[in-house]
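Notes on consecutive records. When two proteins share a document, each keeps its own sequence and its own token line. Never mix them. Below: protein one.
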Amino acid sequence: MREVADVMRRYGDAYVEKFGASIPPSHRRALRDIRDCRTEVLGGHVYACDRCGHRQYAYHSCKNRSCPKCQGDDTEAWLAQRRRELLAVGYFHVVFTLPRELHAIVRRHQKTMYGVLMKAAARSLIKLAADPRYVGGRIGVLAVLHTWTTALGYHPHVHCLVPGGGVTPEETWIAARKDYLVPVKALAVIFRGMFLDMLRKALPHERIPNTIWKKPWVVYCKPAVGGSERVLRYLARYVHRVAFANSRLVAIGDGQVTFRYQSRAKGRRPWKTMSLPAAEFIRRFLQHVLPRHTHKVRYYGIWHPSQRPLLRRIQLATAPAEIPSATEDDGATPMESPPAAASENRKCPCCREGTLVLLETLPRRTRAPP
């Protein structure tokens, strides 16, 4: 199977040589990690079959959050944690996008503006939902940052998961309407005002185009899929999705990378193919690598970490039968128990009768001296 790592191995050095010092440290690290992921560079383990002697090498993963191969375990760990915080109510999926005129400003100041974007989206939702005409209570918002289109273009936007209801000052749960949360046109106006106000305060010397006041800002809202577990799985796809999946690669060679992408046409979104010079493909991919210490997922309202006691009380009030007891909640999480793969015998893929036994641990390759 073709992988992004193959592109990095073939053309990564040429990309670094071409752009040199202009490459941010986070991009350099992502390029290096993806290239070395699950290779002898990162070390690993050697297993041997106790029957036929077959040897199997298992190399370590890079664990970079931009690597297409390293998100499965993170997704399961995230799901295990979020199951303890989910409310047994309906949910809404809300998406906030920015006008194209602001993309350049956000890209130049990613570390600052990504936080501003997520905070403005959450605050506008919380403000409008507090209106008694809609929800009339304090809601929870789980915000996930995305920056890409399917063709790897730059398109910063935020996906939000919102429970269908809110909490009054008396800590009473108020359910929202089943298929309606807040009016999206009013939400877009509030979001625009909050974002631009926060932008001016964060970057007072940046020139903001006047045209953004004359065009509508796009905010999308719809009920999420039903069932708490389906809601979690649905959101996990957004939380740990990276800009590009290996399954979309079609061909690599002659300095070109060909991949599949979905058209943004309304209605059906047919798959098309695009070929780019390898350096341009790497550039597009790396522009979606977040700066170091930038949080991709943030929690607001009743889902904020400081509101865990309140959230616990609301969980018990809305669905006491589905929430684990307090003693269980304070105990070990599912991630603290040994993984199933570690306790089961590994069958030999060669003879299919013997068991793979750990033979040797391979150290990580040390960096050569300068």
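Protein two starts on the next line and is unrelated to protein one.
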Amino acid sequence: MRRWSRLNTVALQTVGCKLNQAETDSLARRFLEAGYQVVAPHHATDIYVLNTCTVTHIADRKCRKLLRLAHRRRPDTLIVVTGCYAERTPAELSSIEGVGLIIGNRDKGSLLEIIGDKANGHRARSLRGRPQSLSLRTRALVRIQEGCSRPCSFCIVPLVRGPERSRSREEIIAEVKARLAEGYKEVILTGTRIGRYGQDGGLSELIGHILEESDMKRLRLSSLEPTDLTPDLLRLWEDSRLCPHIHLPLQSGSDPVLERMSRGYSTADYLRAVRLAREAIPNLALTTDIMVGFPGETQEEFSDSYSFCERMGFANMHVFPYSARPGTRAALMEKTVEDGEKRQRMHAMLDLAKRSSQRFREYFLGRKVDVLWEGNKDGNWVGLTDNYLRVFLPSQAVLANELLAANLIAQKEDGLWGELATQRFES
């Protein structure tokens, strides 16, 4: 049996949603507190932890690829798999060479203790301060709830995340303040379905208290449902710190398909919610998820979905093909769409998504906006506006985690070129 006697470094990697990323960030902090050095995933490391996603077969495949790569990079690395894929089918992951531990969502909170037992009780050496190799994001993710008690017919998440449960308001606000003290200027509230936050008066009350009790520059919501957009919630955007960006998954613009998906709303309901949001929130960026090739989706139903998306004018669309997930109701449905037809519909919807994003970005050309600058790649700084426009700036200056005004001057393939609105002088 292999023995790990000196486990000082750990690399953590995430596949999937913002909730997964929030959990990975939390794990990184716990490893630091326990004395480990957190390094980037591409480094050779003593421990490699992959927080997995299983929402589609493509996510499964990506996870398997990353695990094999980690083993090839350093065969004696302790490879730990956690998350939704590990919860759904641990036996499938155990056959991958090099995997030493599989920890499902239900035991994720005990991950460090389990790793300690596997490593024969090893206590890593203590490191002073935050290691330079640790790279947490400039935008902090804070989990407010997880689980779903109203499953869609296609979704595996309720099976691997369990029923809805929410953190206390006090715990969430304390975490927001802790991230503020670390220097973060933006917090993203995330969860499986944050609109179902069920503590102390619900999501509206939680957001109101965060805005009232903290000085965080920006507060962003990860994803909402049409039924979440109540007048009480929308009134909160009167505070400019709440980012004018709503991710509102549609999945399909066809009512019969929405019914088969068990989404719980019609296109008319969705349209009504969007109109209320756009009336309440100036410069709103509305982004969405669109699925193509759901079982039984006819050409007419796809055309209806395409037309509805075109009408909505989304700022961005995440388009993906339907993927049957074992254990879901949709996996038992007949009249599946052929792969070739799925690909054609996917390409058509992706083309629409590209044109829709370009039109939205064009509307902001010539404006001055605040940008939270995140990182530099090949001499270009990249940052985000409050309404989720990605801005690029050629500069050798150090702008990391700076919230600075920029003029938007030209379109770029996946964003906008900007220039600083005021000259910065480095001492």
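For the record: The domain at 9-118 is CATH 3.40.50.12160 (Rossmann fold).
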